[in-house]
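BACKBONE GEOMETRY TOKENS:
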Amino acid sequence: MFLIYGEDAFLIKMQKNKILKKINPDNEYDLQEYSYLEDSLLTILNDANTIPLFSEKRIIIINDSYFITEEKIKTKVDNKEYLTHLMEYLLTPNPSTFIIFICPVNNISNRLKITKKMLELTSVLKATNLSYNELTKFIDNYIVKNNGTIKQNLINKIVEYLPNNLYIIKNELKKLLLIDKVITDDLIENNMTKYLDTDIFKLVDDLLKNDLNNFLINYHYLQERGLSSIALLALLTNSVIFTRDIIVLSALKKTPSQIAEILQIHPFRVKKIAEHMHNFSIKKANNIIKELFWIDYNIKKGIIRKEISSDLYLIKLFDIN
């Protein structure tokens, strides 16, 4: 039995295919796929306990195995009452059945009994996000494999622009290569999907570099995309908190990869923030966070008008020490 979990659909697929290739190299076994959210767990377990008729072994894949988390997910069937049956099966599995459990989350709940049993009795594979170097290598190899060309600095730009998710990265690269096999800066700027996390971190970069002009340009751009002042302030505050946490962890001699894992953020983002940390201190970060909370509170109370907060009050952030 196997358990695969992680948010990156592409990495999960890679891990699943690796397992299938190992246990079923000649594709001779029956394979059935189910969803914990849509199919009866009792039916799945009955199938798992049944001896296959047309092959030596059976493979069952159970997608959406959210029972190892505490997330409240809407389901078509209520399988909670059958989790005790699953725990019993884990203790005495059918030797003629392989089961692959897949859960599309980065964090599972170790407090749950079923999770503890799964971790104890299955082979666990976490679909871990790639490091910065692995991402650049993946992008370079994918483009070359598809007869495209790109300069190294533009590979770095793609890594910076996109979330650390191979499914998204692959789709964006596919889109660019359909337009032109020679990937240029203009091609990326004009055709690559703009992701909110990237744009928010650009604001923090502008703060770190003390670049007021670009900060206001990027802030107004996000407003034009439909984000309210309240939403933008909340996102900006969270990003500054992340920046402060990176400074603290760096002071504790944590490596960029360790920091990225602890904070669950893009390794390249840690690298970019680290380049400008000499302009930023924990004290300055805390003061900016306090100021952002103050602006947010006063907008909600109606003391500050939303339409002027983005300029008059946010400019004050650049005077904070």
